[in-house]
Specification:
The protein has 704 residues and is an alpha+beta fold. It has three domains: 337 residues, Thrombin, subunit H (Beta Barrel); 60 residues, no CATH class; 264 residues, no CATH class. Helix content is 41%, strand content 15%. The chain contains 22 helices and 22 strands. Strands 2, 3, 4, 5, 6, 7, 8, 9, 10, 11 and 12 form an eleven-stranded antiparallel sheet that branches.
Length: 704
C-alpha cells in the first residue's frame, strides 16, 4: 500500500501554531507556515527557498536514491552522512587498502574515486497535475490501468522537458494518499567521486549500541564531488576528462554554531511516513510487518556477526549489508514499543470515531468511506501479510544464492545472437568481492528453517517438500546440494535458458518455486490491497475536508521536503537530556572500548579529542568542542545526510538519526519527545582539519 499523508494537526488535531510538525513541499509552502518559520527566527525571503537560481533548494540533493546531501562549494563538493557513503567506501576497500577501517582522503582531484551506480539528483521544478489526471478519468480507472496511464504521462512529460534540456527527466508521485499528484523535474549527475571519509570507528561510532539513542558522538559524514561535462557543466557519464561541477549556488558552511532555542531547519528527501494510516493499518504494521522483521533479522545478524568477527575479508564484504539490516531491525523494535507505550492505535481509533461522527452529520463520502468495511478488509489480509513479510525477510536480498535464483526469473539481461534462441544466454557479473560462500550458506539454511517454524504450511514454497522427502529435513544439506549442483553460482557460467538442462537445474527450480509463491500471494491479495488503498484514500480526503481551514502536508514519499523547528533537548526519565555532546563525552566512551567494541576507536582519535587545541571549532558560548546536537525537526529515513540550516540558511550540521522516542514518527510525531540528531558541522571540519589535514578542501569550503 502506498504511504502518504497527514496534515499539520496530526493525530489529535492540534493547532498549526502549536507544533513544528510537518514535511512541507517547497514550491507551494503555505504562507501561514512561512509566517511561523519567520516568527521562530527564519530570515531568508520566501522566494529564496524554491524560486530563482540562488534558492536553497538548488543546493540540496537526492543522494543515490536513498539519502540526502548538500552542495557546499563552487567546485561541487557534497556533504552527506558516512552511512550514506558506506557502500562506496566498502567497494573501494581491500584488506591492503581498507578505507572502511582507516578512512580516506584524496589529496588531488586525480585521487578522487569514481563510483558505479551512484548519483546525485537535483530537483529543478515541481507542479500539481491532479486536475490534468482527473480530466482523463483517473479516479475511475482500475489500479493496473491507473499505473499504466501515470507511467505513460510521465514518459510524455519527460520527453517534453528533454526537448528543452536532454539531461532532465520527470517523475510523477502520489501525494495525500493519492488525492493529489505532483510532477517533479530532476537532473541527475552520475559521475560522483569519493573525496573524504573518516574511519568507520568514527563515522559509525557507537554502532548498534548507540543507534537511535541519545547522547551521541558519531562523526557521521563523508564527502563526495560531482563531476560534469567539461563543455556544458552538465551531467555526463564517467570519464577521466570530466571536470568538477560548478553550481550557480551552494550552501554557505557556518562556523558560528547554535544555541538552545535557535531556529533550525532541514531540507532533504524523507522516504516514507504513514501518519494518515488508519488504526487497522497500524495494528497490521506492528504485528504483521515489524514483528516478523525483528525476528528474522535478529537470526540473520547473529550469523553475520559471527563470520565478520572471524575474518577481516568477510567483514569488508558485509559491513554495508549488516548496517542496512540492523538499522531497520532496531527501528522496528523501537516503533513497536512506541506504538504500545503511547497508545497510538487507541488514539487513532478515537480520531476515526470523530471523523465518523462528522461524516454522519455532513454526509461527506457517505457512499464511499466505510469504516466497517475497512476493518474487515484488514482482517482478511492479516495472515497473508504476515507470511509475506516472513517470506520477504527470509528470501529477498538475504543470500546471494536466493537473489540470483529469483533474478533469473524476473530481470536478467538476455545475451547472445538475436533470432537464435538456443544460443541466447544469461550471465551473472562477477561480484565475488561482495559475498562469502560459507556465510551465505549458513544464512540461507538457517532462515529456511526459521521460516518453516513461523508460518502456516500453506505458505511454504514447493521446495520444502523436497527438503523433507529427499534431504530428511536437513536444510544445510539441501543448500550444499544447490551450491554443488546448480550452475548459477559458477563464476562466468553462461546459462542457456532455452536448453532442457536449464529448467532441470536445481537452483533454477528453487528460484521458480520462490517466484511462483510470491506471484500467487500477490494475485490473491490484489483485490483486497486495491480496496484497502481506496478506503485509506477516502479516509484521508475526509480528514482534509473536515479540517479544511488548516494547512496540511502530505506524508513523505522521497520527494524534497522542508522541516523547521528549534535546537533543544528533551526529558529523559524526568531529567534534561542536554542539547549537545562534547569531546569529553566521546573520550569517556572510548575508554570503554576494551569492553564495548562499538566504542573502540584508533588511539589517534582519542588523542585528538582529548586535546584542548580545538581552535576555531570551539563553541564560543559553551567553551566546549561540540560534537552532535538535537533539534525537534521532523525527519525520517531518507533524511540521512540532510543539511541542517540556521535562520540565515547557513549549514550548521547534517541530520543522521533520531532518538528512541522518534521511532513512532513514521506514524505519529511527538513534539515533546521526538528529536532529530545532527552532527555539528564544526566537528566535521575539525576532523577534516586535524585528522585528515585536508587543507585544500577546507579552503574550498571556506566556512565562516
Amino acid at each position: 500500500m502506498k504511504k502518504q499523508t497527514l496534515f499539520l494537526a496530526g493525530l489529535l488535531a492540534v493547532s498549526a501554531a502549536s507544533a513544528d510538525e510537518g514535511m512541507w513541499t517547497l514550491y507551494n509552502l503555505p504562507q501561514a507556515v512561512y509566517g511561523q518559520m519567520q516568527a521562530e527566527g527564519f530570515q531568508v525571503p520566501y522566494n529564496d527557498l524554491y524560486y530563482g537560481e540562488n534558492a536553497i533548494k538548488n543546493t540540496v540533493v537526492n543522494f543515490s536514491g536513498y539519502c540526502s546531501g548538500v552542495v557546499v562549494s563552487p567546485d561541487g563538493l557534497v556533504f552527506t552522512n558516512h552511512h550514506c557513503g558506506f557502500e562506496s567506501i566498502r567497494s573501494h576497500s581491500t584488506v591492503d587498502h581498507d578505507y572502511m577501517l582507516n578512512g580516506f582522503f584524496a589529496k588531488t582531484y586525480a585521487d578522487e574515486l569514481p563510483n558505479e551506480d551512484m548519483f546525485v539528483s537535483f530537483m529543478r521544478d515541481q507542479n500539481d497535475i491532479t486536475n490534468r489526471l482527473l480530466k482523463h478519468g483517473l479516479d475511475t480507472m482500475k489500479a493496473d490501468r491507473k499505473g499504466a496511464y501515470i507511467d505513460s504521462l510521465q514518459n510524455v512529460l519527460t520527453d517534453s522537458v528533454k526537448r528543452i534540456d536532454s539531461t532532465l527527466h520527470v517523475n510523477i508521485d502520489a501525494f495525500y494518499e493519492g488525492n493529489k499528484y505532483y510532477a517533479t523535474t530532476y537532473q541527475d549527475f552520475t559521475d560522483l567521486r569519493l573525496v573524504f571519509t573518516v574511519p568507520k570507528s568514527m563515522g559509525k561510532f557507537g554502532g548498534e549500541t548507540d543507534n537511535w539513542m541519545w547522547p551521541r558522538q558519531t562523526c557521521d559524514f563523508s564527502v563526495f564531488r560531482i563531476y560534469a561535462n567539461p563543455k556544458t557543466n552538465g551531467p555526463a557519464k564517467y570519464s577521466k576528462d570530466n571536470v568538477p561541477y560548478h553550481p550557480k549556488h551552494w550552501t554557505q558552511v557556518s562556523a558560528q554554531g547554535y544555541k538552545d532555542g535557535d531556529y533550525a531547519m532541514t531540507i532533504g528527501y524523507p522516504g516514507s511516513t504513514e501518519r494518515y494510516l488508519s488504526s487497522y493499518g497500524i495494528r497490521e504494521m506492528r504485528d504483521a510487518e515489524n514483528t516478523p522483521r525483528v525476528q528474522v533479522r535478529g537470526v540473520k545478524q547473529d550469523i553475520m556477526t559471527k563470520h565478520m568477527r572471524a575474518d577481516e575479508a568477510v567483514r569488508i564484504k558485509y559491513d554495508s549489508k549488516f548496517a542496512q539490516s540492523a538499522n531497520y531491525w532496531k527501528n522496528s523494535i523501537g516503533m513497536n514499543k512506541c506504538i504500545d507505550s503511547i497508545g497510538i492505535i487507541n488514539q487513532k481509533k478515537e480520531y476515526e470515531d470523530r471523523i465518523r461522527t462528522w461524516q454522519d452529520s455532513t454526509g461527506y463520502m457517505k457512499d464511499k468511506l466505510d469504516f466497517d468495511l475497512l476493518a474487515k478488509l484488514y482482517a482478511r489480509r492479516f495472515d497473508s501479510m504476515r507470511a509475506f513479510m516472513y517470506w520477504n525477510e527470509t528470501f529477498r536480498r538475504t543470500s546471494e544464492f536466493s537473489t540470483r535464483a529469483m533474478k533469473l526469473n524476473s530481470s536478467m539481461e538476455v545475451k547472445g545472437p538475436k533470432g537464435k534462441s538456443k544460443k541466447q544466454y544469461m550471465l551473472f557479473d562477477d561480484n565475488s568481492s561482495e559475498w562469502d560462500a560459507t556465510l551465505d550458506k549458513e544464512v540461507m539454511a538457517t532462515l529456511m528453517k526459521n521460516y518453516k517454524e513461523h508460518v502456516d504450511a500453506k505458505y511454504l514454497p514447493a521446495f520444502y517438500k523436497t527438503i523433507t522427502t529427499k534431504f530428511g529435513g536437513d536444510y544445510a544439506k539441501y543448500v550444499d546440494y544447490l551450491y554443488d549442483k546448480s550452475m548459477i553460482m559458477k563464476s562466468g557460467k553462461k546459462l542457456y535458458f532455452n536448453k532442457k538442462s536449464y529448467k532441470k537445474d536445481p537452483g533454477v527450480q528453487y528460484g521458480m518455486d520462490l517466484m511462483d509463491f510470491i506471484y500467487d500471494r500477490r494475485e490473491a491479495l490484489a483485490g483486497i490491497n486495491d480496496s484497502i488503498e481506496r478506503q485509506e484514500k477516502y479516509l484521508c480526503a475526509a480528514k482534509l475536508r473536515m479540517e479544511e481551514d488548516m494547512p496540511h502536508y502530505s506524508d513523505a514519499n522521497f520527494t524534497m521536503r522542508l522541516s523547521y523547528g528549534q535546537v533543544g533537548g528533551f526529558a529523559i526519565n524526568g531529567s534534561p537530556s542536554g542539547y549537545y555532546t562534547t569531546a569529553e563525552s566521546i573520550v569517556k566512551k572510548m575508554e570503554q572500548g576494551d569492553k564495548q567494541i562499538d566504542y573502540l576507536a584508533e588511539p589517534v582519535m582519542k588523542e585528538l579529542l582529548s586535546s584542548k587545541d580545538f581552535g576555531p571549532y570551539l563553541d564560543k558560548t559553551s567553551g566546549k568542542m561540540q560534537l552532535c546536537f538535537l533539534t525537534n525537526n521532523d525527519i525520517t529515513g531518507g533524511n540521512s545526510g540532510s543539511p541542517m540550516f540556521d535562520g540565515r540558511g547557513h549549514l550548521i550540521g547534517l541530520a543522521f538519526d533520531g532518538n528512541w522516542d522518534s521511532l513512532s514518527s513514521d506514524i505519529f510525531f511527538d513534539k515533546k519527545l521526538a528529536r532529530c540528531i545532527g552532527v555539528d558541522i564544526r566537528y566535521v571540519l575539525y576532523m577534516m582539519d586535524k585528522w585528515g589535514h585536508a587543507d585544500r578542501l577546507l579552503k574550498e569550503i571556506d566556512a565562516k
